[in-house]
Design a protein that fits this description.
4 copies of one chain form a homotetramer.
Chain A (H helix, E strand, L loop, with lengths): L13 H12 L6 E7 L4 E7 L2 H7 L4 E7 L8 H17 L3 H4 L9 E5 L10 H7 L5 H6 L2 H4 L5 E4 L4 H4 L3 H12 L3 E10 L8 E5 L18 H4 L3 E11 H14 L5 H7 L4 H12 L6 E5 L2 H20 L8 H4 L1
Parallel strand pairs in A: 4-5, 4-6, 6-8
Antiparallel strand pairs in A: 1-2, 2-3, 3-7, 7-8, 8-9
Helix pairs in contact in A: 3-14, 5-14, 11-13
């Protein structure tokens, strides 16, 4: 039996974690503030985990989590993609206080964009794919005369790979490089695991709490967050997979909690021991269950499209002179 | 609701279809002969569907289905891979009667290898990947003097793509090309959908009944088989995905048929209408359920490895002078 | 010594062939009409080879050759790329008479787009890359009710690969598939070899004379042209390589014909036998000279960009309802 | 005019630099010791630059340069590839003194393998490709009990990308990561530029002097060598390109120095000013000359093959228990 298997429901999304908490408590979640906004092509949800109580309730650190939901991510309409890039840019900008991270009143902050994930595993390749479309300027910036620098900020980027490819904890690589280049902000992009397959490829999450690579697979890896990096860290993620275990678990819950059983029966069913459920999950998914993932058939193309949307949004958010209209001039 | 969704259990594997038939009938399946052989690294099962009765019982056409099962496909041990290539070559050769397909007593038969599937969708890219490693000789053969031809047979190859990429039914493309090059045998390779996730990446199926592209997604496409091609057709497949619907269905069945209910309860549960089940599956998987697939995380690498194993096996099986030992001399 | 080596200057571009002819004859080329137009971002040259005399003079078949030259192909400005797509679409449309190729007054013609070249060799992968961005509609068209078909034409597509990958002449594959789907027009895209490295990635050539795969490497392959296909054929090409032999030859010519020698000396140098030149080329390039190509370092990215430009242009040119402004709605 | 253009003959290969020095001096090169060995499938040349005099003579730092030349790199014979892997492993091992780099008598040294180059530019992708096939063990090693560690050494790996992709000097990234993981040896792999196209894909160079990324393009980048890293650094390289400028220059030299001119004429020709030559090179290659490279058509496949050969050789050289015979058991 795979020791890394996490039989409990897992989600990287604060939005889902919050819904699950509401389900459990049956009402409001203390210490968490939620704000929703419906735009033409997207719905924005801003979840603020205000204190330790809220953090424990939803299992996510104190901080801000912004979710952009849109079916437009799935389609291939470039006009809609450009709109989503713009919406994303605005939300990203709301999480960055450029004046505060500026190293000196006359100097622009250096931004270090980290593309997490494994380029050899399609649904995990979002981070590297974003970097394929990102405007990298730090090396040009250093050589440019001040009058040409105006309107651009120094951006550098790295796709470090994953532990299995490098033999080094990803957070260690980032920290080592950060010690050399002394950035003022880290933006880390990663593919996420959702709890609900509805979320696949229709959600972008931004947060100012950082990220723990591999957390979705029950691994205890060093996080990339403001504490470990000693720097502001913004995490950007898109759910591209649901663990097969999560889906099987859901299916069982649907039956057990559905209206096909009387309240008395349900009461009894609640006592099916976790052990039984584990055994049944094992029957269905087999010994490699921990490595089985659910993803949409078109995930290869999706990663390309969402990678472009996020890269475009970062470009617009971090460079004052780049707007959605003139973005293409800079690429 | 997606009209293409197939709520019934679907499998491309005769082995699974046979097991399901045994489960249904509770005993032997008429018209089907099964023979098993255990080798050191692999188990070979030969299923012969002998007549229409057998065909209906397991839902697969009359013909021979050979299954090679081995956990070694999953590993990355090249020695084991080479052994599996050799085992596969032997089974493939058992399905080809070179003397019978020879166009003339003095001429070697031309073999047309078709790599089905979508190179832009990793788990569906097995066919194109096999062709990356196949020895293609037809053009050299035609130019070579007879004394140099000895020991090699003319092999040609095509990866036609899928309907969504070409706008043309794959079988039409194959037939059109076959009319030009007049091959004596078609070997078609495709990624398959299994019913049980245990099968993912541990099974190779060979059959002499051909293949129907897209059958796993409930599409009614023109088959590539001896009837439509007017030629012997050997199909080779490896299960790389399970439909998410299949897994959810399995999970529900595990609960409903498991030993947590009394026989009376089970009797009642049997009457849960199909409609209810569909609704619950919809709740879990959402509107895009038909496009959700379950695959192992390492499927990108797996496709590369299995593609090499199958290509090596075809090379050995079709060219008299190539043996597992000297295969590498020819690549 | 490689027997496939072509020591003479070779070019796929009518524009270059015409310049070379002018150089040789010292003046106008009979049987060839040339028309130039300067646009903001591009220069259009329309060369009409009017008769056999013109065809022999420039070594290209009778027909129309349109060249679009723009440094904008090289850059990464998406706005300029969109303009080039539009310019290209207009030139492509000028070569197609939809009313004439219509199979029936009430039926739209079927267009078969062929992406020639080898997807495993970057500078040769233009054709397959165009197909990655092409709108393929034939299969949807057949299923769509007539009122929804309006404004779109049935387009199908194939990337057949190259002889070394398939063992079949590419023209045979195309012809076989064409016999099944009965298109009314073939559009074939291929990467080209230029004579002058200035042309790399700044030129698109369109012609109504078809294409001969492998002609740049001195191979005598079956052409894909109106005669062999019994159909109108439009060829689209972009020079992505110059043969190393061509460049070495140029370098020698620069010295020999440059102003560092007196007329008498030049006269003598003209008698350097071809054999000497061959020997020197052999000294420089070695035995594999025929397989050495010159390409820009950024050719990987260039193929992606130009592939998108051409695909967008085809989409606009063949579907009446698609315009540059709404193109993205259809992708 | 491109300021980065290097009009002088450039080569990354000590073997070529040595030949050029011999040509210039007309005899032996002081301060350089050369030793050749002919094996069945390969020729080994060991060049030792013994002092500053030798370093200046050939333009390479003091140290050892080993060259393995074999036409077998080009072919696709896996048996020959395995032999080359073994030969390479032996030469690599000759450059490493494991006992000396051991951090403690009871501890195995940690080896940090760096795959330099740009994965988006095929001929520059050798470094990243080697890492695709490398056995990475550091993370397993740390978790393994001592008895299981025996026979393996901790290996970690990084493909940092290039300055244009990251905005950070590659040496800075390596140094930052090295400060975190404290390796005892760095092995850096990079694609090289040769001076002579005969060398393309038939040569592997190893040296203990490190590497300067981008040196072939006239850029002054921070080196990855024992001085900058404060660690032993072994560099491994394979020439995959020749700069187009180099080839054009060669072609001119062939003419000017060939036997078609009398000694008096040659004397005069020697005075063709560098300026004239530059102008002529500009005529032939155009303004983007600095970015034009010559490579074999099959470079995509070559990078895959050579990447496997080098990775296999590193695996054998650094892990005591891995031999060429059992290598595949570990992959």
């Amino acid at each position: 039996m795979n020791r890394d298997v996490n039989y409990n429901v897992y989600t990287d999304l604060a939005l889902e974690a919050h819904s699950l908490a509401i389900e459990r408590t049956g009402g409001e979640v203390q210490g968490v503030k939620v704000n929703e906004e419906q735009l033409e092509n997207a719905k924005i949800t801003r979840i603020e985990v205000m204190n330790e109580q809220g953090a424990q309730a939803i299992g996510k650190p104190v901080g801000i989590y912004i979710t952009i939901e849109s079916e437009g991510l799935k389609g291939q309409n470039r006009v809609v993609h450009d709109q989503l890039s713009e919406i994303f840019a605005k939300q990203l900008a709301s999480l960055i206080d450029f004046d505060r991270i500026r190293p000196h009143p006359n100097l622009e902050p250096t931004i270090f964009v980290v593309g997490l994930g494994n380029w050899n595993a399609t649904p995990d390749a979002l981070g590297p794919q974003v970097l394929n479309n990102l405007m990298v300027t730090r090396h040009l910036y250093q050589e440019a005369p001040p009058e040409l620098r105006k309107g651009l900020r120094p951006v550098c980027a790295l796709s470090p790979g994953v532990l299995g490819l490098t033999g080094v904890q990803t957070a260690e690589i980032i920290r080592g490089v950060a010690q050399m280049i002394k950035p003022d902000l880290i933006i880390a992009i990663d593919a996420l695991a959702a709890q609900n397959s509805h979320r696949l490829a229709n959600t972008i999450q931004l947060s100012n709490t950082g990220i723990a690579p591999g957390s979705g697979i029950g691994k205890n890896r060093m996080a990339i967050n403001p504490e470990t990096m000693n720097l502001p860290v913004i995490a950007i993620g898109v759910p591209t997979v649901v663990h097969a275990i999560t889906i099987v678990n859901d299916a069982m819950e649907q039956i057990l909690k559905g209206d096909i059983f009387s309240p008395t029966e349900k009461e009894r069913l609640r006592h099916i021991e976790q052990k039984d459920k584990k055994r049944m999950i094992g029957n269905i998914l087999g010994p490699y269950m921990g490595s089985l993932i659910v993803s949409p058939k078109g995930v290869d193309e999706l990663i390309l499209d969402v990678g472009r949307i996020i890269a475009g949004g970062i470009n617009v958010a971090v460079h004052p002179d780049i707007t959605p209209d003139n973005l293409s001039l800079y690429l």
